C-alpha cells in the first residue's frame, strides 16, 4: 500500500487497469506533501501489466486542492521547492507510462483541478464543480495549473476564475473544455473505468505517441511539428502490432468505425 491516503488497486482480466483512489475523504482529499509524494511513487512503480489508469476520490468530492493546514510560512526558496515537488509528481501523471483518466465529482478545486488537468481524459459527473480559490486565499497556483489549465480553457477564463472566484458547474465546465465527458451523478468512475479498459487494448506505441508526442507537437512551430509527426508516424506504423491490426481490418476481421 503506497500510503494510507492513496489506494492502488490493479484490475482487469490481464491486470491492465490501475485504479488509484485518493482516500482522504474526511479532509475532502486535500493533498498534503505525503499524498503528493505517494502519487509520484505510484506512477513510478506501476506494474508492467498496467496499460491505463483511473484516478478518483473517496467521498463526495474529488479533491479540495492543497492541504491548507500545511501551508505554513515558507520563505521564497521553500515555496519554490514545494511547487517543484508538485510539478515532479504531476509530470509523472502526464508523462508517465500509461494514459490516465480522472473520474471527477463534487469539488475539483485548486490543486485538485491541477491534478485533473495533468490527466489525459477527464470524465465529470453532474455533481462536479470547478474553482481556483487560490485567488481569494492570497496565493497562486503552484502545481502546474498556470501551464495546463489555460491549455484546456484558455488564459482569459482562468484569469476570471482566479480574479473573481468564479465557480463553473459540471455542464458549463464540459462546455468550456474542463472535461471531455459529462455523465449522470455517481457514474463517473464506471465511465472512466470503461474508457480505461478500452484504451488498454490500443497498441502501446499509439498510446505512447498520444501521451508523449502529441502534446509536444502541439507546442512546436508548424514546420517542426510536421517533422516530429512524420517521425512518430513512421515509428508507430513500423511496429509489428500496427501491421497486424491493419491486416485484420483489410481481412474484414476488425471493427469498422460506427456512426456516433
Ligand atoms: C481541508 C481542505 C483543504 C477541506 N486543506 N483541509 N483549496 C481550497 O481553498 C478549498 C477548501 N475547501 C472547501 O472549500 C470545502 O472544504 C469543499 C467545498 C471542498 C468541501 O466542502 P464541505 O462542506 O463538504 O467540507 P468542509 O466542512 O469544508 O471540510 C471538511 C474537512 O476537510 C474540514 O476539516 P475538519 O477537521 O473541520 O473536519 C476542512 O477543514 C477540511 N478541508 N478542504 C485542508 N484544502 C500546488 S498549489 C495548489 C493551491 C491550492 O490548491 S489552494 C486551494 C485550496
Structure write-up:
The protein is 48% helix and 15% strand. It has 260 residues and is α/β, with parallel strands linked by helices. The chain folds into 2 domains: 6-199, 2-enoyl-CoA Hydratase, Chain A, domain 1, CATH 3.90.226.10; 204-250, Lyase 2-enoyl-coa Hydratase, Chain  A, domain 2 (Orthogonal Bundle), CATH 1.10.12.10. A 6-stranded mixed sheet has the order 1-2-3-4-6-9, sandwiched between helices. The protein has a 3-stranded mixed sheet with strand order 5-7-8. Helix 5 (145-153) packs across helix 6 (155-164) and helix 9 runs antiparallel to helix 10 (222-238). The N and C termini lie far apart (41 Å).
Topology:
Blueprint: E1 6-11, E2 17-22, H1 33-44, E3 52-57, H2 76-94, E4 100-104, E5 107-109, H3 111-118, E6 121-125, E7 129-131, H4 134-137, H5 145-153, H6 155-164, E8 168-169, H7 170-176, E9 181-183, H8 188-199, H9 204-219, H10 222-238, H11 240-250
Parallel strand pairs: 2-3, 3-4, 4-6, 5-7, 6-9
Antiparallel strand pairs: 1-2, 7-8
Bound molecules: 3-methylmercaptopropionate-CoA (MMPA-CoA) (1HE).
3-methylmercaptopropionate-CoA (MMPA-CoA) (1HE) is lined by residues 27-28, 30, 61, 64-69, 86, 107, 109-111, 133-134, 137, 141-143.
Brief characterization of the structure:
By secondary structure, the protein is of the alpha/beta class.
Amino acid at each position: 500500500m503506497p500510503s494510507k491516503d492513496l489506494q492502488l488497486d490493479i484490475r482487469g482480466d490481464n491486470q491492465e487497469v490501475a485504479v488509484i483512489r485518493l482516500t482522504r475523504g474526511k479532509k475532502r482529499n486535500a493533498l498534503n506533501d505525503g499524498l503528493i509524494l505517494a502519487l509520484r511513487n505510484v506512477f513510478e512503480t506501476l506494474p508492467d501489466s498496467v496499460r491505463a489508469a483511473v484516478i478518483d476520490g473517496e467521498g463526495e468530492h474529488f479533491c479540495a486542492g492543497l492541504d491548507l493546514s500545511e501551508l505554513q510560512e515558507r520563505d521564497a526558496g521553500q515555496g519554490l521547492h514545494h511547487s517543484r515537488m508538485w510539478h515532479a509528481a504531476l509530470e509523472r501523471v502526464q508523462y508517465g507510462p500509461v494514459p490516465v483518466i480522472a473520474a471527477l465529482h463534487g469539488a475539483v478545486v485548486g490543486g485538485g483541478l491541477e491534478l485533473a488537468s495533468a490527466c489525459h481524459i477527464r470524465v465529470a459527473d453532474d455533481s462536479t464543480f470547478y474553482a481556483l480559490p487560490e485567488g481569494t486565499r492570497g496565493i497562486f497556483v503552484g502545481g502546474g495549473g498556470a501551464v495546463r489549465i489555460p491549455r484546456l480553457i484558455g488564459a482569459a477564463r482562468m484569469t476570471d476564475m482566479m480574479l473573481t472566484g468564479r465557480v463553473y458547474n459540471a455542464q458549463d465546465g464540459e462546455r468550456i473544455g474542463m472535461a471531455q465527458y459529462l455523465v449522470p451523478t455517481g457514474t463517473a468512475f464506471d465511465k472512466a473505468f470503461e474508457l480505461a479498459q478500452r484504451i488498454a487494448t490500443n497498441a502501446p506505441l499509439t498510446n505512447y505517441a498520444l501521451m508523449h508526442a502529441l502534446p509536444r507537437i502541439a507546442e512546436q512551430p508548424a514546420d517542426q511539428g510536421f517533422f516530429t509527426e512524420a517521425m512518430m508516424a513512421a515509428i508507430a506504423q513500423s511496429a509489428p502490432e500496427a501491421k497486424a491490426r491493419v491486416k485484420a481490418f483489410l481481412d474484414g476481421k476488425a471493427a469498422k468505425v460506427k456512426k456516433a
